[in-house]
Amino acid sequence: MRRAIVLLAVGLVPAASAVAQEPDWSRAEPVTVILSSFDFAPSEIRLRAGRPVTLHLVNQGDGGHNFSAPEFFQAATIRPEDRGYLFRGTVELAGHRDKAITLVPRRGVYKLRCTHTMHGMLGMKGWVVVD
């Protein structure tokens, strides 16, 4: 009987630890990224792994731009209500619009670019560095 209880307890430990804890979204640090013709400011965004952050993406240009970092978004835990702003790892922004995406980033170095025609070639690219 004692052995059965120990085996049962050992079997429950992985199941209990596999339950993910929901991040405390209220503690997200704000980080503003300006999109303009043809630039991201900053072009290197530095974040801390495992800490919630709200990326406030602001398009200051008249035309549309996007914030495309598919590997970054795929690796991150994104707040459920913000997932709808993403399509294939890209956030689209019409001229003079903004969006806030709250997430918990994972360690890594990720490419960032605007995928609109010629925007990347004209300098609208950068990096998301998560330490």
From TrEMBL:
It holds the Pfam family Cupredoxin_1. Residues 1-20 form the signal peptide. SUPFAM superfamilies: Cupredoxins (SSF49503). Keywords: Signal. Residues 17-130 form the EfeO-type cupredoxin-like domain. This is Cupredoxin domain-containing protein. It comes from Novosphingobium anseongense.
